Amino acid sequence: AQENYDIALISKGFQHQFWQAVKAGADQAAAEFGVNVTFEGPDTETQVDRQMDMLAAALSRQPDAIGFAALDSQAATPLLQQAAAANIPIIAFDSGVDSDIPLTTVTTDNVAAAALAADKMAELIGNAGKVAVVAHDQTSRTGIDRVDGFVNRIAEAYPDIEVVSVQYGGGDQLQSTEITKSILLANPDLKGIFGANEGSALGVANGKTELGSDIVVIGFDSGAAQKGMVESGVMAGAITQNPVGIGYETVKAAIGALNGETLPEIIDSGFDWYDASNMNDPEIAAVLYD
Amino acid sequence: MTDTAAPAQKSGIRISGAFHRLLAFSGLIALVVVFSLASPNFMQTQNILAILQATSVNGVLAIAATLVIITGGIDLSVGTLMTFCAVIAGVILTYFGLPLPLGVLGAILAGTASGLVSGTVIAKLKVPPFIATLGMMLILKGLSLVISGTRPIYFNDTPGFTQISQGSIIGALVPALPIPNGVLILFAVALIAAFVLGKTALGRYTFALGSNEEAVRLSGVNVDRWKIAVYATAGSICGVAGLLIASRLNSAQPALGQGYELDAIAAVVIGGTSLSGGRGTVLGTLIGALIISVLANGLRILSVAQEWQTVVTGTIIILAVYADILRRRTL
Amino acid sequence: MTDTAAPAQKSGIRISGAFHRLLAFSGLIALVVVFSLASPNFMQTQNILAILQATSVNGVLAIAATLVIITGGIDLSVGTLMTFCAVIAGVILTYFGLPLPLGVLGAILAGTASGLVSGTVIAKLKVPPFIATLGMMLILKGLSLVISGTRPIYFNDTPGFTQISQGSIIGALVPALPIPNGVLILFAVALIAAFVLGKTALGRYTFALGSNEEAVRLSGVNVDRWKIAVYATAGSICGVAGLLIASRLNSAQPALGQGYELDAIAAVVIGGTSLSGGRGTVLGTLIGALIISVLANGLRILSVAQEWQTVVTGTIIILAVYADILRRRTL
Amino acid sequence: MAAGISDEALSPAAAPLVEMTGIDKSFPGVRALSQARFELLPGEVHALMGENGAGKSTLMKILSGVYARDAGVVKLNGMPVEITAPRQAQDLGISIIHQELALMRDLTAAQNIFIGREPRRFGILDEARLNRDAAAIFASMNLRLEPTVKVETLTIAKQQMVEIAKALSYRSRVLIMDEPTAALNDAEIAELFAIINRLKAEGVGIVYISHKMDEIKRISDRVTVMRDGEYVGTVPAADTPIDTIISMMVGRTLTNEALVIPNAADAPLALEVRNLRRGREIRDVSFSLRQGEILGFAGLMGAGRTETARAIFGADRREGGEIWVRGQRVGIASPRDAVEKGIGYLSEDRKLFGLATGLDVRNNIALASLSRFTGPFGVLDEAGMAKAAQGAIRQLAIKTPSDTQEARLLSGGNQQKVVIAKWLLRDCDILIFDEPTRGIDVGAKSEIYKLLNALAAEGKAIIVISSELPEILRLSHRIAVMCEGRLTGILPGGSSQEEIMRLATMREPAMELRHAG
Ligand SMILES: Nc1ncnc2c1ncn2[C@@H]1O[C@H](COP(=O)(O)OP(=O)(O)OP(=O)(O)O)[C@@H](O)[C@H]1O
Ligand SMILES: Nc1ncnc2c1ncn2[C@@H]1O[C@H](COP(=O)(O)OP(=O)(O)OP(=O)(O)O)[C@@H](O)[C@H]1O
Ligand SMILES: [Mg+2]
Ligand SMILES: [Mg+2]
After folding, report:
1. Residue B167 needs a FRET pair 20 to 30 A away by CA distance; which of B299, C113, C234, D428 works?
2. Do chain D and A touch: 3 or more Cβ pairs under 8 angstroms?
3. pLDDT tens-digit profile of B253-281?
4. What structural domains and CATH numbers belong to chain D?
5. pLDDT recorded at residue A287
6. pTM beyond 0.95
7. Domain count across chain B
8. Which ligand is nearest to the CA of C5?
9. Which H, E and C letters describe chain C, residue by residue?
């Protein structure tokens, strides 16, 4: 790490707190190892081609390494080949890149994480009743994995629980709030809702508060607001990934690659359940971001 | 146009103006009737309140857009300006810890200031409104992220803040009517805007500018000043929207806002205001905004699959406007 | 406006048309010069190709939008129509496994058909273009999700497909010039559109409609038919954009597309086409689209923080258009 | 087409080309036509006369397929026809020059003329032929106009000529001209009349609408008069005195013309213009205007009178020159500055620069005076505005169902009156009226003359730009004449037409003739 490496991170998003936490982790590693890191991502997780333009511009910049969280890994293949041809090491992060070009992938198992949310939901509502999902995106990898992970786990393991509605609010809090209220009003006997990312979870909690409902809300990711809601009990709890860890590990792996180290195929950044009872435990508090 | 050629009222039956106006609601009423029949959950007080609450932010933005559109302009920055104003309120209340009224004032003044800038760029530099407000949209979006440090600002230290939108003054007086303040604010803004448009010089110039700007200029009117005033007024209204959304989310979300301009402009146009300027009403815009939220709410209540919700929404927006055109043609 | 009253070129100094047109590039050239000086990586062949590649989709969409905007209309559906056409190509090629030319034809015909629908709703039902194409935008967005089953459709079984945009016919002949086909297609579409606008009856009526639709009608022209033809042509061009983006991503991404209309319209307006219709050029639109992608690329190359990129982009868009206004005023 | 008809035209008892009987037409709140009648013979110039709002344009729009009638019969060559679209009227050999110009401003003159009928080769527009054909038509009209010039850069007069060329290009059997000369100057009018006589000889039937009474005598064979949407009568033009026609139109005999009230030559100066310049349009124009004086501006089309007025008013920028108001040098950079200094300007192009067509009559009248009706908090005194507007409607006899009617729904002449009312209400000390009586009927015209005289008598200083010499001669205390951007001379009020024409065509700068002040 004596060299002043230039590492470009192309993520799936930029403005959301999750990605800002990834950025924070990357910046932390950058400071620690004395490298230069840039971080960019499109406005929404549907803009696959915008991400391609960002990747192309990053390649033109001729960085030493690239970290890449693919919105659609197939679409990126030609550019990744171009990077490989230029001997720029690629580290995949957040979700896998369907290709053997990346040297390693720093990721969360979203299907398993959402299945854990399903288990917790079942436990909290007494293994029976109606539940719903408010997710961020119908077509992105994380959106698909988390919805599938939750819905499939319920279908497999909890025959008395019915998922009555899965709707998508684009991760926009206000839209997710309105969706939640509609779901609650359409299903007065609903027991719980799973909000599949930070914006969705906050929207769900918000809708619950506005209607004065007492359903069980399970969230995903953290952030100051979500932490506050878990603390106050509006949210029963949430699944946290380790975004700071993802960012940190991505940069670290990139430096490792540049220094000629061999990297494991997968670097699992892990996930955890947190609720009011455990969120102040040091190991949990460490993976929560504000 | 064909409507000039259409022979009208030979029959002597003249439909009264009030009834005429009532019919403008027809698209909205049809939607409400259909959804009420389709789902028992639709016509619940709570759901009606939820619809009104859902209309409040878009309704206020749409009123701002109405003013600008009547002048023949367009304002693409309403959404990100709303966010910017929310962030400013956050900075004042949370970062500086100043009292609530200052935060409210700050948000509204931020909106006014931004409107002044857009208006000046349009009136003085003659940059087309589309470009000027597109530029402002991006600038404000970036500034919101910069100022907030790309993270939400929470209003936890300002206890009264959530009351702005979520409290219910009416509910406190008449418990059976827990109409949230946000909805009251929407109607207050609508009333004020309708008053300004209908009764004041600013409103008159708004219509005149959209009708024939050059004729207004040649009448010795300070066209630039009035145009800037319209954008500034619209900006202040976006400031109110910023307070509403921040209060509802108990936070200023710096990344939100882009895309909201389309819903706002859609409400305006569904409400019968012409994009070429010179005509339009606040009441129409309110109806347009309500049509959008009733549609969204109703389709969700019916648990229509989301991809189909989009298809149905698109179809109904076209049909609602077509019905309104037919109505005007036959009257 | 003062320029209507200003009689053209009284002074003997007549600046040649070609030079005048060259100056229209000034904003673009200024950007290129600044970025080249600021970063050695900007003026690399690869980067220039990346910029052109990034322009191809938005450029083609913007050309479609140009046609409609010259008639005085607007097309908000260009983005989601592009996606819809990509999905149709995916269905034809991947689900049905038909040969490549049929997929290409299908995408373009899907675009034409959608344009016919928008045009008919606008011309026959008199629904304002904003509403008609807003409705179509939502309908097409929903249909893309429905048809694709909300998942991307990959073209892995159609090996030639990625060549449409990513291959390089020129590069095969002249290895030093690996210009991707997508860029060639953009220029081909631009040439054809310029030809249609300048040399054919369709183009003549496009300008005439935007200039004074009522006068065209009074002249006995079948206004409805030509208007529908313009929207249908724009739709076909969106079909080409659909093929380009699908080929670039080797997949039809059904959720993509919304929001792209704003970039397309921005390119048109930056290129000097007036939203009130009657005037506009394809060359201007190309320049507008290039300005947008050069800006995005250059700021990334310079590693400007993303929130500041937005601020700078907004500012420069306003300045570029203002510079163009100044140039026209002084000439 | 026309050739076959010319034989019939020779016989005076030729079958009518057009017969319209029992035509009714209503608009919301307005009965525009009631049992209207009209007949047109081949080879005839038939004048259609009536006050503003009498229904002339509406009747002709029905004949040309723009409006659908509510009742009545239209016959062409004795056969009943249903004309439901402009295209159909064209196919039947009927073409019309609309009163409100209907040109596509962004297209060239030639493109406008042949819109819908572009020559093509292999599906591609044959622009060269298009321009050749247009040039040929212009040549036949003795019109010097580049076919490739964009219409929006043309003055209204030239635009009017393009409209005429367009109508001629159809080679129709029936040609309707709705106030074709309202914007034209004597030279072009003479040219138009030559064209009309040629067409007449070919057997074309021409409907001629105009408010210029002298023209009626000059070219028409018969006159049909309408009043309030009804048919009043048809008389031969040659043997009917103008006064008779006027009394048919207005339903009474008009009182005598107003006289020019002499103004005191030592009245204080109201306005002085010194060395006004801009390019070749305004070349060193200087003149002065006293309180109570009416200064007429005469000149041929393109002489630069409008340009001069706009420059004084601050509507266009100027390159040099000083403007003095009541003995004080003033800086005028915008119309607002001018209005603040007490200068009002009525534009010659009401549609583009005068009327806010989407606003109602009341607000158009009040548009320049809104600040007067603005109370605390910017609230408008609507009752005061209504009262002022209704006063103006009465004073100028504006035909409108109410002061809340949209201005664009008024007839052309009544729109013009609304714009005049706007400036009267503003109460400026110096008024510049550019073609104030364009499209205004005889009765109203004399009312406006009286009004201008009365305003002058009150001490207002007035400039009247007019292309109608009789108007200039009747109104002016002094007459300024312009030619090619120069003020070629200022003549006393009673000067002869010949003297004015001499200055109006004087191409050389003639310093000694200028009485600058
Ligand atoms: N589209 C319309 N809607 C409502 N009223 C109309 C419309 N067109 C014409 N009118 C009314 O019909 C009457 C006749 O108008 P028309 O234009 O035929 O008059 P005109 O005889 O041509 O007058 P002018 O000499 O001023 O041109 C007027 O009162 C006018 O206000
Ligand atoms: N062929 C032409 N090409 C370009 N400009 C022209 C041409 N003819 C006239 N003009 C412009 O028109 C201006 C004259 O304006 P305008 O015709 O309004 O003058 P006017 O004296 O008011 O005449 P009018 O009787 O038409 O009102 C001139 O300054 C000139 O620049
Ligand atoms: Mg008329
Ligand atoms: Mg003139």
Report:
1. B299
2. no
3. 998 898 899 999 999 999 989 888 998 99
4. 13-93+172-252 (3.40.50.300), 105-169 (no CATH), 266-342+429-517 (3.40.50.300), 355-425 (no CATH)
5. 85
6. no
7. 1
8. 2
9. CHHHHCCCCCCCCCCCHHHHHHHHCHHHHHHHHHHHHHCCCCCCHHHHHHHHHHHHHHHHHHHHHHHHHHCCCCCCCHHHHHHHHHHHHHHHHHHCCCCHHHHHHHHHHHHHHHHHHHHHHHHCCCCCHHHHHHHHHHHHHHHHHHHHCCCCEECCCCHHHHHHHHCCHHHHHCCCCCCCHHHHHHHHHHHHHHHHHHHEHHHHHHHHHHHHHHHHHHCCCCHHHHHHHHHHHHHHHHHHHHHHHHHHHCEECCCCCCCHHHHHHHHHHHCCCCCCCCCCCHHHHHHHHHHHHHHHHHHHHCCCCHHHHHHHHHHHHHHHHHHHHHHHHHC
